[in-house]
Amino acid sequence: MKITFLIHDIYGIGGTNRTTLNLAASLADRHQVTVVSVRRHRTSPRFAIDPRVVVVPLVDVRKDSADLADPQLHQPSRAFPAAEKRHHQYSLLTDRRAEEYLRDCDADVIIGTRPGLNVYLARFASTRAVRIAQEHLTHDTHSRKLRAQLARHYRDLDAVVTTTEADAAVYRTRMRLPGVRVLAVPNGVPDPGLPPSDGTSKTIAAAGRLARTKRFDLLIEAFTEVAAKHADWTLRIYGSGTEQERLRQLIDEQGLAGRAVLMGVVSPIEPEFAGAAIVASASDAESFGMTIVEAMRCGVPVVATDCPLGPAEIIHDGVDGRLVPMGDRQALATALLDLIADEPGRRRMGEAALIAARRFDPDRIAGAYEELFDELAAARHTRDRPHGTARWGGSVRRTLSRLRP
């Protein structure tokens, strides 16, 4: 089978790039896999790419690229939805290159990886291919205007795949897509191949974009109480973003200099997690929760806010991690203090996390996608019937049930 992913810019960093490459590498064991990068802004990708995966860039925006002289590059896109936040990076040239590639693409399955690219898929890709829209954000993250634009195009696709069942339920309820499969398949996270944490370090780790929604400010404030009772524990926060300076000031205001440290971007992050005793996530929203799974794959229990939509589908509260109410500084501090005080319990929870995280192995996720591909291909003839008559078997549902807590 020939499988093609359509992605914004595979040469950069980001969760979508990482999860797409994990899935592509697993599928490459049995299929021909191509990753089409609409943009190319650097010579070498930030992440390692399996040599079996073919990468095809469409528009080169590197310095001295011939594409920079093309006048169409400087005219706004007419096909990429204007309400999509990446619209400013799309042009008549990206429209044309995407249309040309997708029109002639002979893939059996084509998967878009962001809303605007899913619109490209609906508008330009041959109906001979199974066409799947992946949603790495969430329905409610999109503006009302964008959701209206997506609804018009998503109904022409074969499936919409979210990363959580909670988000899939929102799509089924709020975006009418007759005849289109709407289901959840979690992201795949590989075994880091590291010795797991032994739970004895005195470090709490956290990672992600330094953005307001990630609530690192709440975590720093909760750690103030930890630091007051446990002078030998430290907090390390990995990542970069617009909140960096504000968080640095907060650390100074709380008297945590040297105790709470902004570590910058570190990739891969797994060695840092494996060296920690606890990982914390204080987010107000998560489309999935990649860092939670990455920490669990390192044998580290995670204390996470029970925010929409991902953490509750990953963590078994009190078994392989802790869930606390969103925005509750005291509850977050108490959960951290409880784990700090109970080293044997912390170690048991880390061992349980290591076992539970195996359900996110990329080969298992690839298997769920392969079953979906087969069922969608078998049901293609039903798309010619009146909307709403398509039926699908239970094999994908059975596979997905094994991937959930």
How would you characterize this protein structure?
With 405 residues, this protein is an alpha/beta fold. The chain has 2 domains: 2-184, Rossmann fold (3-Layer(aba) Sandwich), CATH 3.40.50; 203-359, Glycogen Phosphorylase B (Rossmann fold, 3-Layer(aba) Sandwich), CATH 3.40.50. Helices cover 36% and strands 17% of the residues. The chain contains 13 helices and 13 strands. The strands form 2 sheets. It has a 7-stranded parallel beta sheet, with helices on both faces. Strands 10-9-8-11-12-13 form a 6-stranded parallel beta sheet, sandwiched between helices. Strand 6, helix 5 (165-174) and strand 7 form a beta-alpha-beta unit. Helix 2 crosses helix 3 (115-124) and helix 6 (216-229) packs across helix 10. The two termini are 31 Å apart. The relative contact order is 0.11.
